[in-house]
Amino acid sequence: MSDDFQSRVTAAMANPQHMGELPNADAIGTVGNADCGDMLRVWVKFKEEGGRKVIDRASFQSFGCETAIAAASLAMELIKGKTATEALAMRGEEFAKDLGPLPPTKVHCTSLVEGALREALAPVGAQPSPAPSAPTAPPPSLMDTFNQPAEKKGGVKVVFLKQIGRAHV
Ligand code: FES
Q: Cβ–Cβ contacts within 10 Å for residue 129, how many?
């Protein structure tokens, strides 16, 4: 791993943005990587702007490595103002471009971010017209959902990403 890459990740980790639950989120996505055991959840809130339904705010929680956290922090900023369809067109490498070239062992970390956003945004992107957001009860935290029995109604849907990278080193 290059010192340059590590220093960028360390800098991003020193002041991560958009961490934590987003109250009244319109969309939530959670993914896990079975190889490294890391998990990431994102919350997305939309707003109407110029007749389009665009991302107003997004946040994340992670049981993940520094690279995943740094990439998620960058991604939450990059998707602001985009429609779900536009954000879905973005790839993990785009979210992490400010970190510089990723070592091969860290490519899957950005895929975790992409996967969580895909889980959250795909249902929204498939809607033909904007849906009004209604107040909802705050969703459980990532830790809450881990403590629920898997069969409990309303539990989190964790999607394990396909093997796209190498295991945590
Ligand atoms: Fe698994 Fe980074 S997300 S090591």
A: 5
